[in-house]
Write a structure and sequence with these properties.
It is a single chain. With about 90 residues, this protein is of the alpha+beta class. It has one domain: Phox-like domain (PX Domain, 2-Layer Sandwich). Helix content is about 25%, strand content about 30%. It has helices at about 50-60, 80-90; strands at about 5, 10-20, 30-35, 40-45. A four-stranded antiparallel beta sheet has the order 1-2-3-4. The termini are close together. About 10% of the residues are buried.
């Protein structure tokens, strides 16, 4: 698994995903992001669109060599394999 290290020695990795029908009536997929720093760890859940927006903003300031998984142009349910592929792509 590929991890990113922040200047303050924070390790960040996308560790999984969950479909949250109870929080979002569309049944959106949330990706679980684990952050660890100095013996503490916490997990936050973010939608793909949040990662996509962040990537769009940051690539104007930083050279990004890894391809980012594409955004779907029409609303459709992703298979488990597609979600796992997307998780891996976000992690790189």
């Amino acid at each position: 698994m590929i991890t990113a290290t922040c200047p303050t020695s924070c390790i960040i990795q996308v560790i999984g995903y969950v479909d949250k029908v109870e929080l979002d009536s569309s049944g959106a997929t949330y990706y679980s992001v684990q952050c660890a720093k100095e013996g503490s760890a916490w997990t936050v859940q973010k939608r793909y669109s949040q990662f996509y927006g962040f990537e769009q903003d940051i690539k104007t300031q930083v050279a990004i060599n890894a391809p980012f998984p594409g955004k779907l142009t029409k609303i459709t349910s992703l298979t488990s394999a597609q979600k796992e592929e997307r998780r891996f792509g976000i992690n790189t």
